[in-house]
Amino acid sequence: MIIINDNGFFKFYPEKISEVEKMQTVLFNELAFYKNYFIPKYLFDLQGLHAKGENIDGYILENTTDNIEDLLHKNGLVYNFSKKRLAKFDEISNNNNIGQDIYCVSSYYLLEAGSFIKTQKIVSYFCRYNFREFMYKGIKLK
Predict the structure, then answer these.
(1) Is 9 exposed, middle or buried (0-12, 13-18, 19+ CB in 10 A)?
(2) Cβ contacts of residue 60 below 8 Å, gap of 6+?
(3) Phi, psi of 54 (to 5 degrees)
(4) Alpha-carbon gap, residue 38 to 101, rounded angstroms
(5) Hey, is 62 helix, strand or coil?
(6) What is the pLDDT of residues 2-34, one digit of tens each?
(7) CA 124 to CA 11: how far, in whole Å?
(8) Rounded CA gap, 26 and 13, in Å?
(9) Mean pLDDT, residues 62-84 taken together
(10) What is the mean pLDDT of residues 122-131?
(11) DSSP 29
């Protein structure tokens, strides 16, 4: 499974369709087909035009668009896999205990957008998951 975290918007690209069900089990989150990849079903269900000032998960939308990826990015929101809801990028505070080399990292868990590596927050990355470990490359920090 290829996973791209693009500014906090997760895109899952299975190499075999059977990987979708396996990934749902690993993440404890249902995935839905969107465009040419999979996203958390929660986000899929948020599709459509949202009004400025609308409240979603306790967050008031400042910017609107009918594109879910843009909606999250423009409002500083990310999907929080552990809470299965939206969160502000700046509110995520879990710390990842990984080594110095952020350009090639392996882990047994999915790195959440907005979580920390040392004192910097994870913004984006490319990842391959072989259903034993997540292998990350090109982690972009803020």
Answers:
(1) buried
(2) 53, 54
(3) -70, 145
(4) 29
(5) coil
(6) 999 998 999 999 999 999 999 999 999 999 999
(7) 11
(8) 15
(9) 91
(10) 91
(11) S
> Which pTM value belongs to this model?
0.90
Q: pLDDT tens digits for 76-122?
A: 999 999 889 999 998 888 877 665 555 667 787 888 888 888 788 88
Q: Domain segments of the chain: what residues?
A: 2-141
**Which pair of structure tokens corresponds to residue 53?**
């000032």
| CA 115 from centroid of its chain's CA atoms | 11
Q: Which residue has the tokens 């690993």?
A: 26
Rg (CA), the chain: 15
Residues contacting residue 13 through CB under 8 Å, at least 6 positions apart: 1, 2, 3, 4, 36, 37, 38
Residues 6 or more apart whose Cβ sits within 8 Å of residue 66: 47, 48, 49, 50
Name the nearest CA neighbour of 103 among 132, 55, 140.
140
**Which of 136, 127, 142, 134 lies closest to 102, judged by CA?**
136
| Backbone φ/ψ region at 118: left (φ over 0), alpha (ψ -120 to 50), beta | left
Q: Region 44-66: what's the mean pLDDT?
A: 90
